[in-house]
User: Fold this.
Amino acid sequence: MSVLELENIRKVFNRSTVDEVNALNGVDLRIKERDFVTVIGSNGAGKSTLLNIVAGVFPPERGGKVLIHGHDVTRLEEFRHASYVARVWQEPEVGTAANLTIEENLSLALMRGWRRGLRIAINRKRRKLFADALSQIGLGLEDRLGTQVGTLSGGQRQALALVMATISTPSILLLDEHIATLDPKTAQTVLELTDMIVGRDQMSTLMVTHNMEIALRYGNRLVMMHKGRIILDLSESEKNRLDVNDLVCAFSRAAGEEFTDDNVLLSDVEAGP
Ligand SMILES: Nc1ncnc2c1ncn2[C@@H]1O[C@H](COP(=O)(O)OP(=O)(O)OP(=O)(O)O)[C@@H](O)[C@H]1O
Ligand SMILES: [Mg+2]
Assistant:
């Protein structure tokens, strides 16, 4: 069974105003258990909007459907999505609380999807769970459970955000350019951690990146978005045969065909009866 099914997902922002945007124009996507999908596409293609729909930040337009493990979650509130969807954002500040300690942040992460709010219960068993999870990322954070997160570096904070997102093994992990603000070396470290954790917990993952090389090298499937649509969906074997140049060509071709379609439509209209 698919972990995630998106059917005819559309999203319009600022409807009926001069700022109206069709951010998503009918996206269909099925993600299998353990799929690790990299998502690329130009600015404004609709990648983050798609992740927001999966995370339940807002629902799609009527007619669209979001199924997780076969259950229709299209209209569920965001906090209800939190029990099976976890996310790491581009900015380390968004996913972690600066004025709380590492263990307090992890406690909150563990309670994700609960309604109780901010009751932070830390006992010995939990502390061990946190230390074990942190020791696997190899940054020494397990010895710093009482450290305020605001004092960590961006890379350490993003690695922590990753551990927080995955500590209760969600069904779906959403990564939205989560290494984009890090320096190249730290980005590589966090990327390798991501690959390790996704593989270890066999999590179904959507990872948005602007880096085509990374999109080709990681995961078992590659999706390319353009103007609110999926214009390319490559399997692992197709992906392995391509290099960055091929991908750029594939993009131009797929995007170009779309324009050609529009032109055909337009010329039909203009030609009249
Ligand atoms: N909350 C919002 N209100 C109004 N318009 C929005 C909102 N969120 C996104 N949009 C618009 O929807 C379109 C898609 O945005 P989205 O953030 O999904 O793109 P993206 O593919 O993530 O781009 P980037 O690579 O720049 O992050 C853009 O035109 C954007 O301006
Ligand atoms: Mg985005």
